[in-house]
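Exercise 3.2. Students should predict the tertiary structure of the chain below and write it as structure tokens, then compare their answer with the key that follows.

Predict this chain's 3D structure.
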Amino acid sequence: EGYNVSFWMYDLNSGQGFSYRETKTYYSASTIKGPYVVCLAQEVPSCLDEQRSVIEETIHISSNDGYKVLWNTYGKEVFQKWMEKAGCSDIEFIDKWADITARELGLLWVQMYDYFMSDTEDSRWLASVFTDTLNSCIYDTLGDTYTVYSKAGWINSSDYYMVQNDAGIVMADEHPYVMVVLSNACERIDLLDPLIDTLDDIHTYMVND
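Answer key:
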């Protein structure tokens, strides 16, 4: 169809992975909201009481106004340190938005998994906010089979600012895995859904081989 796509998949138990063009940079769009919110939950846990409804709208319906409230309140510095812990020290930001690769976004989600699995009241609530999120092709494709935590991002502008992205955790039985798909196929979820289904098949084959 003439679009660009990159993906990064990582099994959280075995460490096995599969990727394509994982170091190509894309505009993050709203995918960056997911890591930012989990960073705040870990580093500034009081935000879960102070900004609960804002956090829910920022993730579940991808509210840009909610994200701006959080960013203007808590800033970038805490996020920068959190990203460095994940091994992502070179992500460049344009205002509140990032230029990011599939591998970098995947590493951030690996760190998010540790928080989701910490089994506290706060982590369980926040994980639930990441289910059935708006325009997530990972959830749309795999959510009837597995629990899926995900956050999509999209923009239909021009050139670099035209993306249809998604990232998340697929809780596949004993082999949960992180999946990231970045593309410039804005509004072409019909193309991304079959890719995600195929990547899930590859993961199943990979961990059972």
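Discussion points: The CA atoms of residues 99 and 150 lie 19 Å apart. The longest helix spans residues 189-208.
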